[in-house]
Amino acid sequence: MSQAATQSHAQTHAHTHAHVATPRQKELLGRLAQGRVLGEFIFDVHTHTCDGWSMGSLYDGSSEGLQREMQMLGFSGMACSAVCAISGVDFERANDSLLRDIRKAGNRITAYVGIDIRHGKTLVGDVENYLKNGFSGGKLYTRWGVPYDDARYDPVLEMLNARKMPCLAHCWGGGDVKTLAGAARKFPHVNFIAAHTGSADLDVYVENARTLDNLYIDTAYSRGPRGLIEEVVRRMGSTKLLFGSDAALFSAAQQVGRVIAARISDEDRRNILGLNAARLFGVKPTPAV
Predict the structure, then answer these.
(1) Over the stretch 103-138, which tens digit does the pLDDT of each residue have?
(2) Domains of the chain
(3) For the segment 79-108, what is each residue's pLDDT rounded down to a tens digit?
(4) Paired sense of beta strands 215-218 and 191-194, if any
(5) CA separation (Å) from 253 to 181, 235, 244, 261?
């Protein structure tokens, strides 16, 4: 471990050791342990439907399953993309299925159109059609080896830019974050979200989120190393960090528990759980009941 990293770790350890749980934090931990609605405004920016085509989820990967999870925990909203739209299984079928779901009565899911860069000449027109018919942002994935700042993405990102819509991007380390930062500089009206903070190269995540107005990072990370959320908040504050669970691939309850148990202030926790997302998605921050 470098001298700088050792010093940073020591500072975070000292900060978390000095933390005293607030009454509200204790209440939230109790509610979570008892399976009760949490009673905070919580907006999950990173979820997926699997719709029976992906075997990667142990949980119910349908939109109905996500909404049951949302109701059980008391999430006010989830922003969702279809796994099979971004992973090359079936761009149209997966996005069409999600479009039908968000049109159902009682739907509380916000949809990202899954963008498969290999889709071909109709990609731009198809994405535009989804955006016109109810989708509220885009989801990018690095599976195909095309950097996020590559010109091939420009026509799609220009549509999001014109509509001032958010765009979530799978990132796993500094290389992905740097190319997403390049896209953020080209399209200043898109609020980009770099996923999986802490997966690798934490310095790159933090530095780009701290310095670029339209680049955010999310908490979705299955490993959840001790002190990670505290470290991010200490280094850049809480206004650019968004709660993401990666449900239904991961457990939303486990992922939200990481934020609730983090040794941070109630104000920082509320920013991460939902207030930051409310600004990006233009929703009223009202807790679910």
Answers:
(1) 999 999 999 999 999 898 899 999 999 999 999 999
(2) 41-281 (3.20.20.140)
(3) 999 998 988 888 999 999 999 999 999 999
(4) parallel
(5) 30, 26, 11, 12
Residue 226's CB is within 10 A of a number of other CB atoms, namely: 12
Q: Is the whole model's pTM more than 0.90, yes or no?
A: yes
Dump pLDDT digits (tens) for 187-238: 999 999 999 999 999 999 999 999 999 999 999 998 878 899 999 999 999 9
SS3 assignment for the chain: CCHHHHHHHHHHHHHHHHCCCCHHHHHHHHHHHHCCCCCCCCEEEEEEECCCCCCCCCCCCCHHHHHHHHHHHCCCEEEEEEHHHHCCCCHHHHHHHHHHHHCCCCCCEEEEEECCCCCCCCHHHHHHHHHHCCCCEEEECHHHCCCCCCHHHHHHHHHHHHHCCEEEECCCCHHHHHHHHHHHHHCCCCEEEECCCCCCCHHHHHHHHHHCCCEEEECCCCCCCCCHHHHHHHHHCCCCEECCCCECCCCHHHHHHHHHHCCCCHHHHHHHHHHHHHHHHCCCCCCCC
CB 191, CB 280: distance < 8 Å: yes
Residue with the bigger pLDDT between 61 and 110: it is 110
- The full length of the chain comes to 289
